[in-house]
Design a protein that fits this description.
Layout (H helix, E strand, L loop, with lengths): L1 H26 L9 H15 L8 H24 L13 H25 L10 H4 L3 H20 L32 H22 L1
């Protein structure tokens, strides 16, 4: 009984950190695409609300509406970029849009499917999704989504590993140089923090989906 409690508390703490980081990054400068930060902010808060429903004052229908809007917004942005500006839009600026669309859509479905079971059981554990919500989702679909989010978490975590630059000289031939440190608001939008946040979010999504299987 202790393992689910510890995992749930850890998920609340990490996704809460993700929500705070999204809010600070959206309010700051230097973010690669600030229009995606509010979407991740809503998704992270919804994850916290689903794991700890006793501390959530908002009704599930409102969360589902917010998450549906969070899924529709990047879809509209992606359609506009791929349409009028598809030639000038860099691929790196577009590759995260489908992931955010899927994440918000899955969260909206989870909110609606898990709400009756959580209300009946009166517990915040994601395993409360057994029953009506689980019966509405095929097992293969849950496992496919779990596999996707785990792969996405692994890919995001892989970007945190140091990689040698292509064509770089051996260590003995390179002059010693201290790594540059980033301080202040610019540190909030560093690639490492963004990658860590996406890793946490994907692991949290996989954990919640496993709770329904």
């Amino acid at each position: 009984m202790q393992e689910p409690v510890i995992a749930t508390a850890l998920l609340i703490a990490l996704t809460g950190w993700c929500a705070v980081h999204c809010a600070l990054a959206a309010a700051g400068r230097g973010c690669p695409d600030r229009r995606l930060e509010p979407i991740e902010f809503v998704t992270a808060l919804a994850m916290v609300a689903m794991v700890a429903p006793a501390a959530d004052p908002l009704p599930r229908v409102l969360w589902a509406a917010l998450l549906a809007a969070a899924a529709a917004w990047p879809a509209l942005l992606l359609a506009g970029r791929m349409g009028r500006h598809h030639r000038s839009a860099p691929i790196g600026a577009l590759r995260h849009y489908p992931h955010h669309i899927l994440s918000a859509a899955v969260m909206a479905a989870l909110v609606l499917l898990m709400a009756p079971a959580q209300h009946h059981a009166g517990t915040g554990h994601t395993g409360g999704g057994h029953g009506g919500g689980h019966a509405a989702v095929p097992e293969w679909a849950l496992l496919a989504l779990v596999a996707y989010f785990l792969v996405h978490a692994a890919r995001s975590a892989g970007t945190l590993l140091p990689r040698p630059a292509a064509g770089s000289r051996p260590r003995a031939e390179r002059p010693a140089r201290r790594p540059a440190r980033v301080h202040g608001p610019a540190a909030l939008t560093s690639p490492d923090l963004v990658a860590a946040r996406r890793t946490v979010m994907s692991i949290g999504m996989a954990y919640m989906l496993l709770g329904m299987s």
